[in-house]
Sequence to fold (243 residues):
Amino acid sequence: MAQMDREDRSITPPTHAAVDGPYDGQEAEHIYIEDVFADADDQPRTVSSQARIRNRIRGVVTELTFYEEGFLGIREAAPKKILKDHTLELRFVDPDPVMHRHVARNCFLSSASTALAAIGAYFALPLTSYAGYSFAATTVLTTAAAVAFMLTLYRSHLTVQFVTTSGRAEVLRLVGNVGCIRRVRRATRAIRSAISRAGDESGVHDVRYLRAEMQAHYRLREKGVISQEECSDGTAQILAKFG
Fold:
């Protein structure tokens, strides 16, 4: 009977407790990435630190919870909707993320040129035979300039992608727009540091480690963090490293 109880506990995923803020009253299932050799008691319990990234332009809030046991809790939400809620075991994550910064130059140029046209319409049209159209033209051009500027802010962003060490499957993506890029950079440094600490404890990436990482990919697929194709590609890359 004791053995059955232990098995039941091992397959019952815990949930987040309700918290204040945009997630008040909402709970979602954690994803625990464990290999077949992991101890049943090796679960994230001790919170070492937390980070919060509010991307106002995209309307998304990301909460990161760092655990002493080498796990990272990830919770991302839009208004009234949980987008992500899972936990990563950091020893399977590459500490060197892929970083890409995109600047929407075309949108910016469109915004600037349209704004100049609006100014021209406001001052120049009243001096011509089209004076009656001055207000309408200025309003339309100003609106177009504002829309183009908002697109510039939305499309200009910093993207940070973390992938699994051997399988190269993406398990975490942080996106920072104007107003939260510094927070994304700070969070990235904290994640890299936590991964390094978790990696120091796991030791050399031997056959045991590779088998455990493969198991992690299967669990990620089952919980919807990665797709079937990403899981297949990842496990194929891991298998290629077996001696």
Q: What stands out?
A: DSSP finds six helices and seven strands in the chain. Residues 1-41 have pLDDT under 50 and may be disordered. The chain has two domains: 2-102+156-239, 105-143.
